[in-house]
């Protein structure tokens, strides 16, 4: 699976920030007096907000194209053949890995079936040419399901429904384009919640916030990242920008930690 540029530079940022000496965040200064705790928050300025919006747009596009992005930080991705093979080898192992779990599945459409009670579903090509994994949807997606064609490459975000009738079952599925809107909105809100001092579950959200603030400080004033975003990816990947980013990111991390925002590496 290809990696989106944001994942690549975030990995570099992780290494760079990890190499800095961190002050334990649970260390309490020696003092017998009680002070009023300052608000733990960082307000993004206009440039930083525009950059965040453009990066979210790139991440959403990358997710739909099949690249690995930060939008997948809490949801794994598999091919339909991978899931089918796991279930074919050992159904118990398949249920342990997929049952009631959320994941992205990619594969080619084998056929669409009307189903009982006007409950259509799609089968994907798997290891068994007769009975492939079944993708089930909510009824509001009927029009989109009807537009799918045999042999078409497709991707869905689903919940594992176990194994029945000789096939892996995927429930409550969303086409990847629908899921990308949900995932990108969650990603952006997660960053804003972190910067507002609210707890977040994934450590990549704070690191993404560090990256965005650092990038906003090192990109040229006239960068399209602060407007249309037309050449933003190229601007970010410029060698000069990357060199400045490696220097800027650790200081941004330290700045946020000093404010009381927790960044776990």
Description:
The protein is of the alpha/beta class and 265 residues long. It folds into two domains: 41-73 and 201-258, no CATH class; 77-175, OB fold (Dihydrolipoamide Acetyltransferase, E2P), CATH 2.40.50.140. The chain is 45% helix and 17% strand. The chain has helices spanning 5-18, 46-65, 80-89, 91-98, 142-146, 176-195, 204-218, 232-237, 239-258; strands at residues 77-79, 102-113, 121-124, 134-137, 153-164, 167-175. Strands 2-3-4-6-5 form a five-stranded mixed barrel. A hairpin with a 7-residue loop joins strand 2 (102-113) and strand 3. Helix 2 (46-65) packs antiparallel against helix 6, helix 2 crosses helix 7 and helix 6 packs across helix 7 (204-218). The radius of gyration is 22 Å and the shape is elongated. The model is unreliable at 19-37 (pLDDT under 50).
- Are there runs of 5+ residues with pLDDT below 50, and where? 19-37
Q: Superfamily at the CATH H level of the largest domain?
A: Nucleic acid-binding proteins
Task: Write down the Rg.
Answer: 22 Å
- How far do the termini sit from each other? 25 Å
Order of helices and strands: HHEHHEEEHEEHHHH
Strand content: 15-25%
Major sheet description: 5 strands, mixed, barrel
Structural class: alpha/beta
Walk across the major sheet and give the strand order. Answer: 2-3-4-6-5
Helical percentage: 40-55%
């Amino acid at each position: 699976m290809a990696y989106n540029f944001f994942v690549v530079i975030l990995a570099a940022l992780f290494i760079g920030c990890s190499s800095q000496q961190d002050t334990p965040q649970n260390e309490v200064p020696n003092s017998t007096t009680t002070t009023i705790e300052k608000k733990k928050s960082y307000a993004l300025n206009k440039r930083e907000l525009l950059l965040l919006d453009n990066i979210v747009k790139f991440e959403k596009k990358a997710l739909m194209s099949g690249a690995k992005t930060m939008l997948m930080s809490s949801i794994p991705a598999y091919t339909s053949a991978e899931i089918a093979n796991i279930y074919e080898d050992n159904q118990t192992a398949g249920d342990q890995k997929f049952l009631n779990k959320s994941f992205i599945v990619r594969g080619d459409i084998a056929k669409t079936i009307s189903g009982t009670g006007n409950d259509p579903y799609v089968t994907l090509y798997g290891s068994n040419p007769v009975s492939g994994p079944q993708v089930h949807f909510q009824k509001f997606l009927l029009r989109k399901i009807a537009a799918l064609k045999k042999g078409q490459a497709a991707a869905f975000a689903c919940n594992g429904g176990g194994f029945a009738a000789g096939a892996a079952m995927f429930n409550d599925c969303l086409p990847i384009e629908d899921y990308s809107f949900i995932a990108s909105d969650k990603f952006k809100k997660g960053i804003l919640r972190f910067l507002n001092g609210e707890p977040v579950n994934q450590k990549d959200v704070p690191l993404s916030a560090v990256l965005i603030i650092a990038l906003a400080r090192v990109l040229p004033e006239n960068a399209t990242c602060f407007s249309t975003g037309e050449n933003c990816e190229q601007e970010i990947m410029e060698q000069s920008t990357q060199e400045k980013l490696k220097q800027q990111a650790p200081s941004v991390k330290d700045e946020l930690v000093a404010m009381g925002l927790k960044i776990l590496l």
